[in-house]
User: What shape does this take?
Amino acid sequence: MNSRQLTNYIKGFAIMTVLADHFSGQFLTRYYGLLGDYANGLVAIFFLFSGYGLFFSLKRRFAGGASGKALVKYFFDRALRIYPLYWLSLYIAPWAFPGDFTVLHSPGGMMIYLGLPFFGAPWLYWFLTALFQCYLLAPLLYFLLKRMRIKSFLAINAGIALLALPFSVLLPYTRIVDILSYRYFLGAHIVLFALGMTLPYLMERFKGRVTRPMFIASLAAFFLTVFLTRTGDDIFNRSHVAFIPLMILSTFALGMTWLCARPPLPLKRGFVTLGRHSYPVYLFHIPYYALLLRLGLLKDNDPKSIMIIIALLPIFFFVCIKFERLLNNAAARILAFMEGLPGVRKALRPAA
Assistant: This one.
């Protein structure tokens, strides 16, 4: 498999774990502790590989150098790709989450719809707020990476993580800390995203030297650190926060060895496809559960509910994929129309 397929495969595995985690939290409460908070740790993979994938996009976009036009085009393209599905998911959220989304009708509700980085969206939408922060910083991170040695860029990110450690452990957990954190650690998602942007350079340098035993070791280290950083004080007070730098390091090592070692993988087509369309699956899996619940098909701790979910998942995936393609095609047509308008064309097209 090529690198794009490899990243989509592991994202497909991660999104399946997220779906299982949220299902067990709602309908397998007797056994929820077996999965609780592990799926949230696997989200680190999304931040890492989002940075990796966006590096290539920015490389193409800024091939002719930095320009205001290219920057405007970058943000416009991101908005057209992200907002339609995001807005639709938020629109139906009050139906899927009764009582949890009154914030959308408050003065700050519009800020959540706009995805502004300092207005955290509730419940599973926290991930979108964190991702918007990464996308806003992506051009800056890209140009910093292009203008300095890779070792210096890695050292800066390590320094940021170490600097954030005492603040993350000692600061009271307020709303603003929540918005700027991943797994209670300030800026962990941004550091993961930035490290993902370095993977193309490191792959080129170390590809022939990474072995499958190294991959297996990094995989074991990753799952160990996910275990250590679960929500709770399993070892000492706020130990789950103190171990986050180790989880960041193990996630980075896993991404590196995964892309270089290219291990043999089962169910390639299914996981690759699922990873490629993980965005709508993430946004709509809870409304999908809510729909089945209202139809009387799901009950807490009922084995039949597991069988029903498994049987209907292919239909849910199919609908998500088709809907994403429909909206992406519509967004592409809107972009083509906008580029043809006088005045807008100059603002959106990067300089030759």
Q: What stands out?
A: The chain has a mean pLDDT of 88. The CA atoms of residues 51 and 193 lie 4 Å apart.
